[in-house]
Amino acid sequence: MRDITRYQRNINRGLDKALMEAPSLQMDLRSARLIVFSDHHRGKGDEADDFRFSMPAYMAALDHYLDAGHTLLVLGDVEELWENSPNPVLEQYPVVMERENEFHKRNHYWRFWGNHDDEWRNPSQVKKYLNPYFEDIVVHESLHLRMMEAEGQLGEILFVHGHQGTLASDRLGWLTRILIRFIWRPLQRFFKIMPNTPATDWRLRCRHDVAMYNWAAEKQGLILIVGHTHHPIFPSSSHVVRLAEDYRNVKDISVDPEEILQARADMEFAQAQEKPSYFNSGCCCFNDGRTTGLEIIEGEIRLIRWPDDIGRPLPEVLDSADLREVFHNVAQQGAPISIPEGLKS
User: Fold this and answer.
1) What does the alpha-carbon distance between residue 315 and residue 36 come to, in Å, rounded to a whole number?
2) Are 146 and 153 in contact (CB under 8 A)?
3) What pTM does this model have?
4) What is the CATH code for 2-235+273-344?
């Protein structure tokens, strides 16, 4: 419990700082059109490039949201710069960069840096490498959005990558980057390992989800939207029901104790949440070529997946909620939750 407490304290410090230093923006709920993607991990196109399978789905999504007039938020880890230097990555995906730049030219583009592309926290590096693709772009750590209606402010949203406060990804990121570039990358290429899935280190991911939720739950009127874990989070009653059903099914048919523990921990985490205050967009580098994200449109927040269930280049809405209700339900301070029993087992 001592380590968990220290971990939570560090997360709190990192997110408090990101909120305090975030640029603030007002947006009317009725006109809001946002699409949030994260964790592309674009590489050089080789075996270690986790984005290459998802590129078709992501390009289809960009075309759709560009035509619909959305603002695109990319929440960090867009380029895989722990494994690569910037130029080979940027040169590998010129078409993707050009399409994202269409949003930028309309002032409908927000770029954030994560732990795997924290090189962009340095304005001189942004100017050197990104400005040729996005004129005068600024890469942010966070964004504080105040959602408005005619009667006044409904609530607040903090957008941030989500690694803030962690030891390996934030406070010792410089060392982790060296180890990955010179040790992990050659092994990944040789053995053709694809680790970037929501199941990777599920115990650490679950602990991190709890810490993210606890920070957000203590904030009145605020919801937190992050990436980082590659695991979509959408708090809703239907989500709790699905996870409970998944756990029953896994428990009945699985012979893998780790799979059962993971399903139990995910269910218990969802059941424990009092407030719908923590959302996660998932990632753009699933092995099956799919991409998940979060839409804010027509007064709703939606978890979506590209392509749809039958493979068409369309968004599949996996879950949705009325943002007015969400903000109503996070108006009061909530209680922190503990690590799920399934994780302690």
Assistant:
1) 13
2) yes
3) 0.90
4) 3.60.21
